[in-house]
């Protein structure tokens, strides 16, 4: 991973605490909002229950007062009807008010229609049966008026005759439409609803859209969970009536006045809308800040980090390629400037060390060349005093080998260093010297050589191989030897070929057992990690193949003396 990418990644990592803090803050805000909303809907449900309790208590007190009226206790229809009509006029939200005897027959009443004639009996109604059975004030269930046809619910109170016996029931019918109109207001909407249901789970009132839901059964799953509760609470539900997900605060029938279910629901989408918007703004802000931070980190990383690092890397690569003159030229007090200066100082120290090493190596090469020349001169002097032709020949061959080594050292010394030797030019010079010393009439060995650079070890080994093979070719080539030396480079492999027109002796063996010279050739080829091959027949041909270790310079096309490479 590049430094610029690491800086960008680091910038992203620095934002993680901000993201974590935002997440924790979001979690805390949502928890607080959830608690606040649940408390709010629970309070509103209690407020609706309180209003319902005031209505119920008012009706109860009124019915209690009526139960003490002697006209009702004595079952006087005319006087009783007059009283009820007066009360009906004073309470327009009452659909009807009446008194029924113990059998459920209504003997005096007043309703919205205000028509003559008896009202239908009410003996089968829940509120009548419950009041007669318990002897207490009772709130009924959902019903439809038999004369008015209006959805309503009833409240009833038993009364006694002068003998103290339960004589019947006084009841009030409250129209649900009028009650909804009185309780409706701008606080109720699609997201904020209020529901009142009777003890049987039938909806009496739901705001808004009361007419749409009145008389419908309360959703069974929600009713099963809330109606059995023993205390007020809250619940999170999706209403089957309209599909809106709400937080609902409810008063169960067990604790509600008149055994009614009262619930207030608040839509989560509306309740959490501002918080969701703030959260989205925070997320967008964090993403934008992260993107800006990463872009800036990338830009400044490239300028402040990548550029100086690439500059230092470029200089070190030039050093690796042999250009020790390269410098970063970085100045300043920054860490990268100090690092660049340290690299420059290191390069200066290395340059001085290499210069000193070159001086030492040049001196060493000079001393080695002088020593080899001395050895060669001593061999020549010694050979003059030797009368045995075989011994003289051995001395001459030794002189040739020493001269080959001296020539290789001279080439290294002339090239200005010891890193590599231009072996093509060296081959020409060596073959020329051998031709001058061994061939008559100024004849020359034919040399065809591709440009080739060798390190000193390979150059020295191959020089000895060339000396032995060319010497043998001239020596065993007869009176008119024709020696051809070829140096070819292809696909990273070097091939040295030495060929003459004279065939090899029948007992010649390439494994080196034919003589010391071939043994040395075999040893040198092994040092080259190469292979020696020969062909017999009409002419003698030796081929040495190996892979050069020194990098080959593509610009090397002509030898030092300006002659084209054959």
From TrEMBL:
SMART domains noted in UniProt: HAMP, HATPase_c
Gene Ontology CC terms, in alphabetical order: plasma membrane
Cellular localisation: Cell membrane
TM helices/strands, residue ranges: 282-301
GO BP term, pick one: signal transduction
Domain HAMP: 303-355
Native source species: Prosthecodimorpha staleyi
PANTHER family, per database record: ETHYLENE RESPONSE SENSOR PROTEIN, TWO-COMPONENT SYSTEM SENSOR PROTEIN
Protein name: histidine kinase
Catalytic activity, reaction form: ATP + protein L-histidine = ADP + protein N-phospho-L-histidine
PROSITE patterns from the UniProt entry: HAMP
Gene3D superfamilies: 6.10.340.10, Histidine kinase-like ATPase, C-terminal domain, PAS domain
Superkingdom to which the source organism belongs: Bacteria
Keyword list, A-Z: ATP-binding, Cell membrane, Kinase, Membrane, Nucleotide-binding, Phosphoprotein, Transferase, Transmembrane, Transmembrane helix
GO molecular function: ATP binding; protein histidine kinase activity
Keyword Transmembrane attributed: yes
